């Protein structure tokens, strides 16, 4: 048989996409190159506020100077807990200019989740929204001996339109124990001298990105500057967008997909990054018309919400050269209905925090095949510098077409988990990432993701992969979202249960949806029970939380 090392997927790429990339040592180098080349170009667009590359450079210099003046040193960790605002970008650049490591944190986290990160990463500085600091983080930081610096941001700053659909509330005023982010960013003078260039290298740590913790305590993936710039440069060269193109931050920047495929890729292209705080379908559609972006990436659930908005039209997507989906499964029925209704083709992709976002994607100009047996849509093909294998429990290669665990080796794979040598040895033996995802590859190199190992349902000894059942449900015209879990069954051991949310104006009975699946699936696969919910629980990156549905069941 053909070996995975032969890289059959290269036949799916153009010559330009196969060409080796030469990324800069760090995203900071890419940013500085853009400042030197196009200082007056808009770097950040936030509602109708704008910051040029030169202004962004000066403000992030001020943050770096403040951090250094407060004793922040090379290698120190700074937690950044902000939504998709210019403050997030300024904070990240400021920390890197000070030689530090960014710990991106979901602003939805609560006290216990944040306490683990502060302690595990030994965070020195906290940069967050004023409401979060006032709500719980100040007291939490008081009990964390490593935290010495706090900066807070009022997230209505740097935008000039009053859009209360997304940005409600008022500034809380000076925060006890914290300085205002923009005040220190705008402070100049010899007392606030910018620290010396840290001369970051590809091996220097850029991020500690904490995993979602679905398999236990969250672990910190150590994304290097080289990991980030490789994938950012691969995005830039592979997408073929014009210099200075506008990228829209649909995925949250605190998530690895947003930080790499939106922010870092935009900097690599000296582009404009359009921001809109957090996802709200109507606001995002308005922003598409205002900013006319060429590229965005987001989870399938975001596209579902945009499609369901009562005011959406084809014109909202007319400016896009490429639309990508990642972070959540992309049903084939959604790709087809989106293309029919709005024109663009949704390009699938696959990646993890541990491989710094994408390790496989559908190349521009190509269409992902659908597996004829399972109905699964391919997530793409690996890049030329990446090897994706399908392996058995002993780590041996499986033949093309046979499902097994997906393993990834390449320049985007992190060197390990933060201070977790045992977890690193187990999850990345000899530098190869064992993803925990089950998938297969066809002889042409297309990769298909079946499901997570832990989500497999055992019904009377038969394996049922939730993705297969969900894809059938998504093909029903009334279904907006679907998630399938295993529930205890006295006779079968486990049986299949489906949770769905419906499209506006649809009202099928649960029995109708179960019968629809029964007609299209083997007897042991179709859901014995269907429950209709107004909304399915999701992470802020848009991934449906099956574990919460299992608890509910």
Question: Would you write up a description of this structure?
Answer:
With 553 residues, the chain is of the alpha/beta class. Among the domains are: 27-39 and 47-200, ANL, N-terminal domain (Rossmann fold); 456-552, ANL, C-terminal domain (GMP Synthetase, Chain A, domain 3, 2-Layer Sandwich). It contains 16 helices and 25 strands. The protein has a 9-stranded mixed β-sheet with strand order 2-1-11-10-12-13-14-15-16, sandwiched between helices. Strands 4-3-5-6-7 form a 5-stranded parallel β-sheet, with helices on both faces. A 4-stranded antiparallel β-sheet has the order 17-18-19-20. A hairpin with a 3-residue loop joins strand 23 and strand 24. Helix 8 packs across helix 9 (256-268). It is globular and about 70 Å long. The mean pLDDT is 92. Pfam families: AMP-binding, AMP-binding_C. This is Long-chain fatty acid--CoA ligase.
Summarize the structure.
Pfam families: AMP-binding, AMP-binding_C. The protein has about 550 residues and is α/β, with parallel strands linked by helices. The strands form six sheets. A nine-stranded mixed β-sheet has the order 2-1-11-10-12-13-14-15-16, with helices on both faces.
What keyword list fits this structure?
553 residues, alpha/beta, 16 helices, GMP Synthetase, Chain A, domain 3, 23% strand, nine-stranded mixed sheet, AMP-binding_CS, Long-chain fatty acid--CoA ligase, Rossmann fold, five-stranded parallel sheet, AMP-bd_C_sf
């Amino acid at each position: 048989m053909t070996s995975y090392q032969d890289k059959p997927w290269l036949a799916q790429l153009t010559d330009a996409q196969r060409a080796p990339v030469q990324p800069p040592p760090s995203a900071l180098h890419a940013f500085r190159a853009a400042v030197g080349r196009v200082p007056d170009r808009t770097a950040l667009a936030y509602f109708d506020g704008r910051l040029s590359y030169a202004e962004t450079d000066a403000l992030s210099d001020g943050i770096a100077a403040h951090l250094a003046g407060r004793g922040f040193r090379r290698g120190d960790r700074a937690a950044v807990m902000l939504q998709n605002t210019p403050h997030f970008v300024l904070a990240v650049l400021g920390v890197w200019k000070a030689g530090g490591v960014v710990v991106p944190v979901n602003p939805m986290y609560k006290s216990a989740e944040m306490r683990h990160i502060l302690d595990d990463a030994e965070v020195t500085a906290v940069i967050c929204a004023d409401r979060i600091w006032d709500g719980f983080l100040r007291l939490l930081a008081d009990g964390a001996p490593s935290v010495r610096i706090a900066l807070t941001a009022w997230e209505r700053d740097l935008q000039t339109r009053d859009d209360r659909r997304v940005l409600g509330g008022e500034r809380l005023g000076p925060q006890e124990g914290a300085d205002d982010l923009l005040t220190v960013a705008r402070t100049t003078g010899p007392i606030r001298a910018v620290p010396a260039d840290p001369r970051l290298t590809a091996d220097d740590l850029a991020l500690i990105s904490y995993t979602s913790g679905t398999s236990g305590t969250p672990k910190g993936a150590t994304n290097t500057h080289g990991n980030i710039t490789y994938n950012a440069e691969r995005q830039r060269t592979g997408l073929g967008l014009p210099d200075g193109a506008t990228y829209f931050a649909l995925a949250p920047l605190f998530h690895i997909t947003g930080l790499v495929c939106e922010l870092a890729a935009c900097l690599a292209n000296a582009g404009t990054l359009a921001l809109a705080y957090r996802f709200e379908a109507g606001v995002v559609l308005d922003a598409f018309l205002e900013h006319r972006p060429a590229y965005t990436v987001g989870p399938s659930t975001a596209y579902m919400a945009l499609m369901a908005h009562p005011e959406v039209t084809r014109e909202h997507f007319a400016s896009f050269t490429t639309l990508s989906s990642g972070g959540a499964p992309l049903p084939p029925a959604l790709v087809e209905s989106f293309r029919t209704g709005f024109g663009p083709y949704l390009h699938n992709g696959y990646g993890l925090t541990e491989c710094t976002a994408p390790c496989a994607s559908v190349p521009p100009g190509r269409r992902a095949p659908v597996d004829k047996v399972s109905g699964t849509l391919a997530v793409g093909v690996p890049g030329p510098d990446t090897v994706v294998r399908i392996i058995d429990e002993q780590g041996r290669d499986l033949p093309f077409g046979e499902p097994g665990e997906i393993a990834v080796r390449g320049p985007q794979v992190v060197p390990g988990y933060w201070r977790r040598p045992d977890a690193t040895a187990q999850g990345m033996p000899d530098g190869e990432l064992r993803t925990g995802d089950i998938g297969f590859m066809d002889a042409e190199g297309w990769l298909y993701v079946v499901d997570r190992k832990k989500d497999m349902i055992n019904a009377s000894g038969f394996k049922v992969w939730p993705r297969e059942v969900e894809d059938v449900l998504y093909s029903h015209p009334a279904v907006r979202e679907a998630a399938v879990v295993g529930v205890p069954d006295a006779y079968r051991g486990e049986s299949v249960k489906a949770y769905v949310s419906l499209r506006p104006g649809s009202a099928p009975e649960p029995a109708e949806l179960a019968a629809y699946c029964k007609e299209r699936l083997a007897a042991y696969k179709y859901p014995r029970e269907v429950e209709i919910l107004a909304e399915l629980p999701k992470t802020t990156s848009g991934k449906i939380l099956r574990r919460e549905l299992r608890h509910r069941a």
